[in-house]
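[Target chain]
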Amino acid sequence: MSGPERASTRTAEPSDVGELMRFFVGLESEATIGRLWGDPASEAAIYLTPYVAADAASVLLAEVDGTLAGYLAGCEDSARFPSESDRFDAALRTHRPYRRPGAVRFFARSVADAGIDKLLRRATATDLVDERWPAHLHIQVAATWHGTGVADVLMSTWLDHLRERRVPGCYLQTLVQNPRARGFFARHGFAPYGEVAQVPGVRHDRRRVQQVTMVRALP
């Protein structure tokens, strides 16, 4: 038996943070696209732990035979949640990742990229603020479970949760250079919205990457 027939979902609890962090560190070793500055604690302080702290019921865990296979960190109302920029600043103050040589290179490259984008008047990655799509999410599944339906179970459960809470819509952001992810989100009803934006600092095959915003209404 594979995939969704063996996967179960549940909401996270504060006691799950340790296991989620270990899972998050493992994802970093699997990453081939969108690798950041190599400090899991500070990266998780932007994309994972604030969600558990704010509302553990909006963080879904997918388990297969009792083992964590993936998670979805969601937010029902982005206007009431710290922006990615604010979370980024807080993570840097708390964890000081710039003391690592790899992080120094990343942040220096980010500053240079942002300067070039501003000079050329190119859009740079930022949050979407629109009352039509107030919710947002980050989803991660271990490579072992890619293509098995585990991600589908997480996404379907999340969308059902938003419908029950009468949330009108949801957005997410992914990389242009990740067609697998874009295809997955499209299958779940998300469509590209707005212009493609540059992502400062991040490289794939030594080239810059771009971010696409995708939205889904929830009738």
